[in-house]
Amino acid sequence: MTRTVFFISDSTAITAEMLGHSLLTQFSGVHFQGVTIPFVNTPDKAEEAAKTIRDQAKADSMRPIIISTLIDPALSLRNRVPEALHLDLFDTFISTLECELDQNASHRAGAAHAITDITEYMNRMEAVNFTMNHDDGVHPRDLAEADIILLGVSRSGKTPTCLYMALQFGVKAANYPLTEEDFTIQGLPKSLQNWRKKLFGLTIDPERLTQIRSERAPNTRYATLENCRFEVSESEALMRHCSIPYLDTSTLSVEELATTILHRTGLKRQAFS
Q1: N or C: which end of the chain has fewer CB within 10 A?
Q2: Which numeric CATH code is attached to 118-265?
Q3: What pTM was computed for the model?
Q4: Biggest alpha carbon distance in the chain?
Q5: 176 with 235: CB under 8 angstroms?
């Protein structure tokens, strides 16, 4: 079964998408076709969105689902599209909070993603720049600034995890790719020896690794299952020998990886996006 889901917002629609997807993943027997409509911040745009949803209802012969974070009641699509199921995420909680806090909400569109703390925002951007400049072992001389250094074989998930940690948590995350040369020295690479306490390893199932590498470099020794098994085995042996904690990335999302690493290392997030 396929159902069309509209994520509607008077701002970026990021909140509607995040919360909406969290709800929808609980229904594995349904295929959801998502449509995002951001910046519905005028009556004309609300009416245009309503028409799009009504047209989709006719095409599907089934009620669309609207997941909305529209702040302004005047822009609500509830009365404009009676043919749809409406889930108004802000309306569900705002009135309850207003009663509890004895204060009216600001009803300001985009407040969740506005730059309310310039220092925190700049720290987050600085972390992103640092992480991009320290991808795959680049600039090892200023690793003293790093909050954490991820190491693992090529394509084990180091770069996306580092970038997520920087953007979402404001953590300065560097990474170092382990290669065959590193497996011959019976210890940490020289550039990492002073930063043992900052190290955290990533590993991966060899069969999953060969799939990923084959998409990037098909028909190469780099992508063969035999080579992937060798590299994963050697990298895990190195991390155990050096008492470096590590995590298997095979079935974890980047969000799960980043959050687990912060939890296991005790790192404090520097930003709340």
Answers
A1: N
A2: 3.40.50
A3: 0.74
A4: 69
A5: no
Element (H, E) at 53: helix 43-60
Tens of pLDDT, residue by residue over 88-108, are: 988 778 888 889 999 988 766
Backbone angles phi, psi at 168, to 5 degrees: -90, -35
Q: For position 111, what pLDDT does the model report?
A: 54
> What percentage of the chain exceeds 70 in pLDDT?
95
Residue 205: C-alpha distances to residues 222, 247, 251 (Å): 15, 11, 9
pLDDT in tens, 157-202: 999 999 999 998 999 999 999 999 999 987 899 889 999 999 999 9
Q: Which of 32, 169, 5 is nearest to 89 (CA)?
A: 5
Q: Where are the beta strands (DSSP E) in 21-70?
A: 31-37, 65-68
Q: Say yes or no: do domains 2-113 and 118-265 share a fold.
A: yes
- DSSP letter for 216, please: H
| pLDDT tens-digit series, residues 113-122 | 554 567 777 8
Of 176, 183, 131, 174, nearest to 156 by C-alpha is 176
| Pairing of β 246-248 and β 85-88 | unpaired
Domain boundaries, the chain: 2-113, 118-265
Task: Tell me if residue 152 falls in helix, strand or coil.
Answer: strand
| Amino acid present at 74 | A
Q: Read off the amino acid at residue 112.
A: A
Tokens 């290669």, residue located: 179
Can you give the pLDDT at residue 49?
96
CATH class, range 2-113: alpha beta
**Which residues make Cβ contacts (< 8 Å) with residue 168, sequence separation at least 6?**
258, 269, 271, 273
